[in-house]
């Protein structure tokens, strides 16, 4: 006997409570501490991770749950009260691969279709086609599981499972669309499980409980559907109440439901093995080769001997009008004998050869044994009233795919609960893929074994009418059919409860993300977080499926939604893999983008194979949700793959655009809008953005550029949103507007996505402003665009342009085509008329003919040119005769030049002005300081003080005479102190300087009145005056006038005259757009 003695030490935990420590137990590892007790199992200490204690395994089984994470915590939080809730220690995740992933996936995958429809699918489609269905669907889920494993191991997946994975991988739009599809699929799955529960209850357990009973055979399907609706609604209400009261009750029954599934599977395999040496006795009665429903007769005989008397049987009464031998009977009944065959011949019977291929048919087609001899009857009209087994629906291969697919869903059970797992990144891939492999084996083996054991007519008997109303898969099971009936009943109940538990939480996760605004109310619930409102909506949608009442009609609906979800899981994985996102580092390494694309292709194929119209409806629903989220502007940034895809696509497109310049056919104005800002950084001319939107109609590139002369923030995006302008913002910080606009024109855009057109406003107040900077900036911008070979649009009176909400009535857009510079003048009205603001306006084109031009021929040629350009416009040729230059033009030119000359003489440059002000101010102040330092008494008669006063007056007078800065500038100048060297001013020097400057000014004024205007300027002014008269005469009432913009003078000394010419040209016109081409053709007659 070995006695172990150990010291038990107590250490303070910080709250005054002692904590026990033991040398045998590493107390930092709570999971290990829970696996064994104290030192009694120290011998097995090193094996505890791989081989847990039996007690630990049993404890986990007792706590088994198939609910999504968060559900159990909500219930526990609801049980806790007050401060005790906060004191509850946080449990570390302790579920392994078996309990946490494998068994929940197994329970979700195996379900109602296996028990109620798989035998019918095998009988209808045959073994080969059934195997094809199983392989296709299981391959789809296996490939999806591989993609899902990669995503699930690329970080923690919270509650929401597949929705969380898709939304964080593909963005809020796809996430919301697919998340809602997955929610609808889960909800309709609840309907399917409830319908399966009621079908088992009313068909196999208590048929007498039916409320609606059919008096005639042809009324039986309708009566069954009505019973399903009534009982299904009651069952849904009951299950919803259970979920509302507390899912902890569902949680307590989870192990029971799991045990039912596993025991049922084992009973089926046991029954198959038993048929090899002792097949069960389930006789099938055939009339000719037709299968009979044996509900209402015991013996498969027409007549039988009772004692020495031959009497008719119950079967006779079903086909004849009386039990007498001379009764009138059905023709087919008379011509054919009854035969008894075994429903389950067994594995060694060779029946597998008869079940290799399928037997599809229309609704009402009788289930017949093709190998049995029969005599056909001439009249078959009464067959529907006879107790034959017949198809209740039209069967074909694609329908069976849609009905079968829900039996392979449920692969998300592990990823939905990743937060409860000890090692999610290891457990999810292994558990999910093993569960799919297990269920695939079960389905493939079941298809082969069912076809090898059960007679074909029994397999095609959906509701077991030929075997006295027994469940077909039940008659195969050992030891009793009731094992399968009861097991499948509880399995369907559990699956329905789990759907009603999981679907509201999925909807709550979507609602709390806030990407679908009208769903936000469903994000609220009880105090403990239970989604009450989401449960109500789920119950309502579930009721829709129950009112459909047919399991075969509901199954394809939820197949669509699950396939849509799996499609996007595969796309998400493929996208992340191909984009090589830096954050894409999944622990699961056995994935490839080709597998993901194959899975996605398989999902799309199965959708359209199952039901093309359901597939289109599901895609339409997902598309509408996607566009709704996009329209409402999902402002979520989750680092999704779609954003990475957009970046890669943009890079690829930019590189392609860079390879060659755009063809004339592809040319469209790519706009750079130059905005001036007010002092408070608001946009000066917001209608410029409206006009840009109308011109672009959302197509092409729009860059909104502004210049900030300080480093403050500018909220330009709000201005763009107000004017509905779609484009990019580019703000430059610069010390002056001139340099800022130059930077924008040269650097805005990237690669092939650079602007080719500049849009700006006409400086309307340039004449009223004493500062020439505004019009000089304007002219330099014109020169910049010309040098960059970019088109220029200048909008005059832009504040009177229509907004995007205005609708202009009947009117015209007048184009004055003076010179041809690429055809932009004719393209712009066409683009404007695409927008609803200008849609009702007609286009008119005016061109100017000189004396030696043939105006009639010009008009014909222009009309033909517009015809080839496919432009609808009225054409008019305006003749401008050579005339003498009027005195008005001469005088206007003279006044313009005099004004320009006067400004040049009377305005010093800014640098000279500041230097002279500084010099005079500093000299005056220095003299005053020196006089004060001599100790003068300050009397008014002191000659030095009088000289200072005189000097100050003369300084002010000199500043006024020389048109320098205001007196405020004098006061604002900093005092530089007496240390600087200044010239010494005396009264005589100052007076002589003033007189000299005055004489210079007077000489300049005399020259102004004696000057003569430049002849070149006179000619330009004459053109502006005459052209303005013509334009005003023809187009004053037009909604918009487009004019060729003459270029600026090459000699910069004539810049101000250029502004005068443009001002005269535009005088009297309201909305004008001056257009200057970029030096290339932008419109073509060729296709």
Automatic annotation (TrEMBL):
Chief subcellular site?
membrane
Q: Which residues form the SLC12A transporter C-terminal domain?
A: 686-792, 799-933, 1010-1087
Residue ranges of the Amino acid permease/ SLC12A domain? 101-273, 391-672
Q: How does it sit in the membrane?
A: Multi-pass membrane protein
> TM spans, by residue?
95-118, 130-153, 174-195, 228-247, 254-273, 393-413, 433-459, 471-497, 533-551, 557-578, 590-615
Spell out the residue ranges making up region: Disordered.
11-31, 905-952
Q: Name one GO biological process term.
A: potassium ion homeostasis
| GO molecular function term, any single one | potassium:chloride symporter activity
Catalytic reaction(s) noted: K(+)(in) + chloride(in) = K(+)(out) + chloride(out)
Tree of life domain: Eukaryota
- Where does it reside? Cell membrane
Q: What Pfam families does UniProt report for this protein, alphabetically?
A: AA_permease (PF00324), SLC12 (PF03522)
What are the annotated GO cellular component locations? plasma membrane; synapse
Q: Which keywords annotate this record?
A: Cell membrane, Chloride, Glycoprotein, Ion transport, Membrane, Phosphoprotein, Potassium, Potassium transport, Symport, Transmembrane, Transmembrane helix, Transport
NCBIfam families for the chain: 2a30
Which PANTHER family does the UniProt entry name for this protein?
Answer: SOLUTE CARRIER FAMILY 12 MEMBER 7, SOLUTE CARRIER FAMILY 12, CATION COTRANSPORTERS
The similarity annotation says:
Belongs to the SLC12A transporter family. K/Cl co-transporter subfamily.
Q: What is this protein called?
A: Solute carrier family 12 member 7b
Query: Which species is listed as the source?
Result: Oncorhynchus mykiss (Rainbow trout)
């Amino acid at each position: 006997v070995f006695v172990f003695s150990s010291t038990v030490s107590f250490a303070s935990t910080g709250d005054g409570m002692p904590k026990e420590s033991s040398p045998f137990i590493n107390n930092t590892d709570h999971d290990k501490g829970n696996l064994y007790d104290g030192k009694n199992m120290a011998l097995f200490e090193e094996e505890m991770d791989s081989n847990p204690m039996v007690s630990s395994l049993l404890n986990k089984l007792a706590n088994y749950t198939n609910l999504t994470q968060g559900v159990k915590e909500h219930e526990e939080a609801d049980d806790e009260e007050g401060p005790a809730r906060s004191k509850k220690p946080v449990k570390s995740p302790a579920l392994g691969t078996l309990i946490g992933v494998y068994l929940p996936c197994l329970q979700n995958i195996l379900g109602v279709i296996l028990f109620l429809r798989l035998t019918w699918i095998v009988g209808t489609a045959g073994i080969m086609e059934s195997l094809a269905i199983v392989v296709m669907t299981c391959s789809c889920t296996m490939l999806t599981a591989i993609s899902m494993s990669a995503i699930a191991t690329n970080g923690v997946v919270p509650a929401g499972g597949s929705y969380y994975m898709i939304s964080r991988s593909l963005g809020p739009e796809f996430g919301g669309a697919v998340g809602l599809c997955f929610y609808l699929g889960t909800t309709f799955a609840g309907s399917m499980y409830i319908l399966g529960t009621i079908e088992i209850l009313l068909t196999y357990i208590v048929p007498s409980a039916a409320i609606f009973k059919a008096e005639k055979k042809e009324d039986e399907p309708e009566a069954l559907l009505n019973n399903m609706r009534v009982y299904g609604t009651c069952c849904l209400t009951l299950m919803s109440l259970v979920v509302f009261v507390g899912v902890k009750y569902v949680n307590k029954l989870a192990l029971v439901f799991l045990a039912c599934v596993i025991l049922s599977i084992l009973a089926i395999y046991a029954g198959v093995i038993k048929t090899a040496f002792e097949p069960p006795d389930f006789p099938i009665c055939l009339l000719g080769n037709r299968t009979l429903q044996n509900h209402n007769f015991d013996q498969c005989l027409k007549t039988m001997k009772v004692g020495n008397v031959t009497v008719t049987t119950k079967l006779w009464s079903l086909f004849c009008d009386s039990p007498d031998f001379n009764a009138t009977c059905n023709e087919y009944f008379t011509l054919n004998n009854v035969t008894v065959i075994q429903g389950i011949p067994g594995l060694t019977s060779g029946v597998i050869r008869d079940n290799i291929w399928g037997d599809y048919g229309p609704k009402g087609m009788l289930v017949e044994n093709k190998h049995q001899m029969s005599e056909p009857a001439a009249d078959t009209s009464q067959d529907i009233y006879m107790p034959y087994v017949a198809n209740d629906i039209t069967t074909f291969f694609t329908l069976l795919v849609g009905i079968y697919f829900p039996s392979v869903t449920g692969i998300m059970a592990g990823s939905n609960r990743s937060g409860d797992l000890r090692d999610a990144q290891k457990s999810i891939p292994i558990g999910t893929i093993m569960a799919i492999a297990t269920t695939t084996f079960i389905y493939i083996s079941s298809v082969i074994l069912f076809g090898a054991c059960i007679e074909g007519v029994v397999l095609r008997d959906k509701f077991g009418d030929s075997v006295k109303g027994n469940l077909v898969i039940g008659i195969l099971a050992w030891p009793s059919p009731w094992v399968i009936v009861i097991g499948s009943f509880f399995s369907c109940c559990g699956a329905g409860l789990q759907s009603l538990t999981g679907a509201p939480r999925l909807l709550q996760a979507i609602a709390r993300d806030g990407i679908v605004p009208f769903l936000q109310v469903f994000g609220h619930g009880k105090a403990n977080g239970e989604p009450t409102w989401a449960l109500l909506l789920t119950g309502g949608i579930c009721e829709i499926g129950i009112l459909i009442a047919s399991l075969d009609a509901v199954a394809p609906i939820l197949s669509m939604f699950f396939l849509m979800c799996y499609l996007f899981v595969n796309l998400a994985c493929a996208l992340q893999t191909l984009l090589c996102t830096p954050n894409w580092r999944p622990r699961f390494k056995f994935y490839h983008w080709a597998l993901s694309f194959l899975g996605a292709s398989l999902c799309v194929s199965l959708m359209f194979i199952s039901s093309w119209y359901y597939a289109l409806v599901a895609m339409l629903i997902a598309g509408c949700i996607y566009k709704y989220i996009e329209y409402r502007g999902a402002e979520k940034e989750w680092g999704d793959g779609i954003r990475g895809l957009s970046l890669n696509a943009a890079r690829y497109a930019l590189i392609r655009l860079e390879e060659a310049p755009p063809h004339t056919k592809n040319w469209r104005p790519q706009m750079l809008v130059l905005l001036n800002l007010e002092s408070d950084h608001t946009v000066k001319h917001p209608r410029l953005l409206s006009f840009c939107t109308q011109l672009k109609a959302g197509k092409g590139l729009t860059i909104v550029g502004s210049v900030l002369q300080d480093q403050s923030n500018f909220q330009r995006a709000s201005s763009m949103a107000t004017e509905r302008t779609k484009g990019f913002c580019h703000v430059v910080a610069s010390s002056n507007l001139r340099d800022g606009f130059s930077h924008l024109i040269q650097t805005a855009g990237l690669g092939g996505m650079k602007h080719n057109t500049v849009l700006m406003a006409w400086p309307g107040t340039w004449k009223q402003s004493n500062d020439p900077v505004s019009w000089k900036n304007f002219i330099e911008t014109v020169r910049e665009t010309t040098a960059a070979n970019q088109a220029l649009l200048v909008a005059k009176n832009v504040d009177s342009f229509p907004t995007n909400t205005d609708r202009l009535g009947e009117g015209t857009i007048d184009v004055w085509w003076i010179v041809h510079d690429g055809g932009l003048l004719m393209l712009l009205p066409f683009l404007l008329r695409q927008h609803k603001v200008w849609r009702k306006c007609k286009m008119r084109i005016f061109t100017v003919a000189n004396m030696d031009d043939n105006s009639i021929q010009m008009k014909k040629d222009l009309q033909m040119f517009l015809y080839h350009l496919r432009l609808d416009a009225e054409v008019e040729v305006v003749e401008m005769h050579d005339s003498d230059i009027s005195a008005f033009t001469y005088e206007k030119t003279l006044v313009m030049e005099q004004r320009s000359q006067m400004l040049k003489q009377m305005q010093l440059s800014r640098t000279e002005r500041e230097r002279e002000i500084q010099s005079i101010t500093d000299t005056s102040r220095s003299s005053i300081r020196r006089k004060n330092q001599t100790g003068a008494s300050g009397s008014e008669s002191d000659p030095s003080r009088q000289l200072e006063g005189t000097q100050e007056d003369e300084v002010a007078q000199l500043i006024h005479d020389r048109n320098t800065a205001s007196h405020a500038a004098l006061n604002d100048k900093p005092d530089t102190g007496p240390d600087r060297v200044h010239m010494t001013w005396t009264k005589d020097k100052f007076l002589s300087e003033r007189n000299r400057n005055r004489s210079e000014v007077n000489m300049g004024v005399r020259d102004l009145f004696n000057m003569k205007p430049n002849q070149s300027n006179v000619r330009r002014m004459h053109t502006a005056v005459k052209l303005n008269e013509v334009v005003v005469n023809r187009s004053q009432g037009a909604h918009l006038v487009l004019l060729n913009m003459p270029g600026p003078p090459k000699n910069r000394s004539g810049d101000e005259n250029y502004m005068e010419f443009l001002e005269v040209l535009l005088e009297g016109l309201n909305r004008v757009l001056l257009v200057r081409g970029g030096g290339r053709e932008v419109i073509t007659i060729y296709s």
